[in-house]
Write a structure and sequence with these properties.
This protein has 93 residues and is mainly alpha-helical. Helices cover 30% and strands 4% of the residues. A two-stranded antiparallel ribbon has the order 1-2. The chain is globular, with a radius of gyration of 13 Å.
Length: 93
């Protein structure tokens, strides 16, 4: 989503790289529902949900593995010094 600083950071890294496909869950409710189905059924999201995080960006690797770690997808995480991530309690973004 373009309103997520972590997503924007990832999006900049994969610009013009055909190895990656961006699915913006904010573009259409159908895409959001597909993400929520994945989020509701995959234990990868348990910690994110417990902490009130959305669980994005999320990465589905070629072998079907789901991860929330950009490095697992060959990318870099947004530096911590760039600010807090978005959270429901208002402590970030």
């Amino acid at each position: 989503m373009d309103t997520c600083p972590d997503c924007v950071y990832v999006k900049e890294q994969i610009k013009n790289d055909d190895r990656y496909e961006i699915i913006d869950i904010g573009q259409h409710v159908r895409k959001l529902k597909e993400f929520l189905r994945l989020r509701d059924t995959s234990p990868v999201f348990d910690e994110a949900k417990k902490n009130g995080a959305a669980g994005i960006p999320c990465f589905v690797l070629e072998d079907g593995t789901v991860t929330l770690v950009p490095e697992d997808a060959g990318l870099q995480s947004r530096p911590i010094e760039d600010g807090a991530v978005c959270s429901l309690d208002g402590s970030g973004c």
